[in-house]
Specification:
With 729 residues, the chain is α+β, with helices and mostly antiparallel strands. Among the domains are: 169 residues, Jelly Rolls; 102 residues, Sandwich (Immunoglobulin-like). Helix content is 26%, strand content 22%. The strands form 9 sheets. It has a 6-stranded antiparallel β-sheet with strand order 22-23-24-29-26-27. Strands 1-4-9-6-7 form a 5-stranded mixed β-sheet, with helices on one face. A hairpin with a 2-residue loop joins strand 31 and strand 32. Helix 7 packs antiparallel against helix 8 and helix 11 packs parallel to helix 13. The protein is globular.
């Protein structure tokens, strides 16, 4: 199993860790000081930075604050303690007057940043080699309004004798932005705090044809006859480890020399590609190979693990998300192909395994504890590596067990799902680690809607969009980057201004759009976020940014620009936004930063997002990624398209304009009624083909299209037509 560099928590290099520890001590020793308000003059106040008169490596000179690397060292940092930053800091501006050869400067803030009692470091600048003025935008959620006393750090890494001179450091105010979490302007709707910081209408507005992108991506990466550098991307794997037939492989990055043949491929990339194409409308069973059946190779039966893992010969116990996410993707694919091979049998067998893991992670009081790094199925014990924990495993396993219950109606799966949700219900700190939390949030909403549970979906959703407490800075971007609205993307919000990732962005969209079926109070917030996401996600792709703002523009053999960059940075060496990834900068193998492991999930967006006759109003298909969807009181029977026949077509719309807008909606050839779940009203009766609906300004519609003339009944909080739920609230 490959561990890409970003999948571990953002651990600092050893020398930088020592810097933080050293400076943290200085901060504690100054605790008797109530703090000093920052002014630009303080950067030249020697008393603020020089704590040891004998240490000549830190000094104030006519050009500014000079920091030099001492002999036999690789770093040096100057720290100003007990500093209170100005109110509403939005931008940090640094002017570097001089920089010694082969040195890299940095600037950080350390302390109780959010006023919650936890000490954190925000690295605003790191590995910088430029002189002159550098700026970075700070997410307003990173700093507490109470202005706690913090430590400001200026320094560098390099060889002995290297130095940097800081001419100035300014903390500039942010523009006023709305903050009305919980008080949506649309009656009956709830806000998500992060979404209130996003614009109603992002600029510049350019919505990519996401379905066309997904279909073309599938055609490109599954082409055995492709010619060019690093092509073809696909290969046949004849290892026959878990199945007595060939499997297939795709590299996780274009130009990965370690993955071009044999069993060295990842399910995160390969099953993801099959699922993405499937939900976007491509029949992956009837191409050159039956790629759906080939995905059974990731069911690790030969080694006795009996789990769907990230390779064909993997073992559990390394990382929760690497071992749970392949199951989620496999289950989703199995939902779309319930007739295929052993798919359902594998779903049941692995749901049994995770059920047993839930019981094995008992905390001694009859409750499951997921506050671990992983789970080892060989020993049936949780794993703690002493470096990080992945508590949102509860969310991922909760989704797995909920879907197993929806599929098989075995009460033990429901009991395991409840154990997972109860762990999240008890938890006070945000457990978001990588990709699992949104799926547990969807599961909680479904259990509430279908079974009358009362899990705190509001808390879970705000965690999905907030700032993680177990992986510093992980969350949803809510800032504008160098003239581009990048709101809505998922990744690190504080890594040098922000670092968003394609896979995580697409995956969260796939989880949370269907949630509004089960809790329509979030229709406006989710649809507003999705407009921002669908707009900003194009920046992961080559050709969307100015020349010089991509790390792998040298690769010319993807002329349609179908393979996205692994991520998008706020800036890199003064250029931003910057499409990039980890491989080139960290020099760990692949020749490009173009990531198939993220691009494979573009089909989730392609399945959900459709244009309307207003470019700023999207149609979002709430069933497209609602796996094992339900809508009736009975069990769910798969329809002709592999989705639940009991669920009526459901579409979400958001009008970002300041005035009401009319849009056309195609309800199909059969007569249907048009019901808005946000208001609980039928808007139209007995219509077919194209009809027109009006969306109020800054508001959402959640349209459900039941057959015309059906019998309307109530069952508790549910509204049904002919026994099929059209409104859960």
């Amino acid at each position: 199993m490959t561990t890409r560099s970003r999948t571990s928590p953002p651990l600092l290099p050893t020398c930088v860790s020592l810097m933080v520890a050293c400076c943290a001590g200085a901060l504690v020793r100054a605790a008797d000081d109530d703090g000093t308000d920052w002014t630009p003059q303080l950067v030249r106040d020697a008393q603020r930075w020089v704590h040891d008169p004998q240490d000549k490596s830190i000094a104030v000179v006519p050009q500014g604050l000079r920091v030099a690397v001492p002999p036999e060292k690789k770093w040096r940092i100057a720290a100003a303690n007990r500093i209170r930053l100005p109110e509403r800091v939005g931008t940090v501006r640094v002017r570097v007057a001089q920089l010694g050869a082969e040195s890299q400067w940095l600037m950080r803030i350390y302390g109780d940043l959010r006023g919650d009692g936890h000490q954190r470091t925000v690295g605003l600048f790191q590995d910088e080699t430029r002189t002159g003025v550098a700026t970075v935008v700070i997410d307003p959620r990173l700093l507490a309004k109470e202005r706690p006393a913090l430590q400001v750090q200026l320094g560098l890494e390099g060889s002995p004798g290297g130095y940097v001179v800081f001419d100035s450091l300014e903390f500039l105010p942010a523009p006023e932005r709305p903050s009305r979490a919980g008080r949506s302007p649309q009656p009956g709707q709830r806000d998500i705090e992060c979404v209130t910081l996003m614009p109603n209408l992002p600029q510049p507005l350019k919505i990519r044809d996401w379905r066309a992108t997904a279909v073309a991506y599938d055609r490109f990466v599954f082409d055995f006859d492709a010619k060019g550098q690093y092509l073809p991307l696909i290969w046949l794997d004849e290892s026959r480890v878990n199945i007595d037939r060939p499997a297939f492989g795709l590299p996780s990055y274009a130009g990965d020399p370690h993955r071009t043949e044999g069993p060295r491929h990842e399910s995160i990339t390969c099953i993801g590609a099959v699922l993405g194409a499937t939900v976007a409308g491509v029949d992956k069973r009837r191409q050159r190979h039956d790629y759906v059946a080939m995905c059974e190779a990731y069911y690790n039966s030969s080694n006795g693990e009996n789990l769907v893992l990230n390779g064909v010969n993997c073992r559990s116990g390394g990382s929760f998300w690497y071992e749970i996410w392949p199951h989620i993707v496999f289950y989703a694919l199995a939902d779309r192909h319930p007739e295929a091979g052993r798919m359902d049998a594998i779903v049941r067998a692995t749901a049994d395994r995770w059920h047993d893991a839930c019981l094995a992670m008992d905390d001694g009081t009859g409750r499951s504890d997921f506050d671990h790094t992983a789970f080892n199925f060989s020993t049936m014990q949780p794993v703690d590596n002493g470096r990080w924990k992945e508590p949102d495993a509860a969310a991922g396993i909760g989704w797995i067990e909920t879907m197993a219950w929806m599929k098989f109606r075995d009460e033990k799966y429901l009991a395991a799902a409840d154990r997972c949700m109860q762990f999240l219900e008890r938890r006070k700190q945000n457990p978001y680690y990588e990709v699992l939390l949104p799926y547990g949030t969807l599961a909680a909403a479904r259990l509430n809607a279908e079974l009358g549970r009362t899990y705190d979906v509001d808390k879970l959703l705000n965690w999905c969009f907030g700032i993680s407490d177990c992986r510093g800075g992980w969350g949803v971007i809510a800032t504008r980057w160098h003239g581009y609205d990048c709101h809505g993307l998922l990744g690190s919000i504080d890594n040098r201004g922000g670092y968003a990732f394609a896979m995580n962005t697409f995956a969260q969209a796939g989880a949370l759009v269907p949630l509004v079926r089960y809790d329509d109070r979030y229709a406006r917030a989710i649809s507003k976020w999705m407009l921002n996401l669908a707009n900003a996600a194009r920046l992961f792709y080559p050709g969307e940014l100015p020349d010089g703002h991509e790390s792998s523009a040298f690769w010319k053999d993807d002329p349609q620009g179908l393979i996205a960059y692994e991520g998008l940075r706020y800036a890199w060496q003064g250029k931003g936004p910057y499409a990039t990834g980890d491989p080139i900068v960290m020099k760990w193998g692949p020749a490009t930063d173009r990531g198939l492991y993220g691009s494979s999930y573009v089909g989730l967006l392609g399945a959900i997002v459709r244009p309307t006759d207003d470019e700023a109003i999207l149609q979002l298909d709430c069933l497209a990624t609602d796996f094992y969807a339900a809508g009736s009181e009975g069990s769910c029977a798969a329809g002709s398209e592999g989705r639940c026949a009991a669920a009526c077509p459901t579409y979400l719309y958001y009008n970002p304009h300041k005035a009401a807008r009319q849009i056309a909606v195609d309800v199909g050839a059969e007569p249907r009624d048009v019901y808005d779940a946000c208001t609980g009203k039928f808007l139209q009766r007995d219509v077919r083909g194209r009809t027109t609906v009006t969306i109020p300004p800054d508001a959402a519609l959640l349209l459900v299209l039941p057959p015309s003339g059906g019998k309307v009944t109530r069952h508790g909080s549910k509204t049904l037509v002919n026994g099929v739920v059209i409104d859960y609230r």
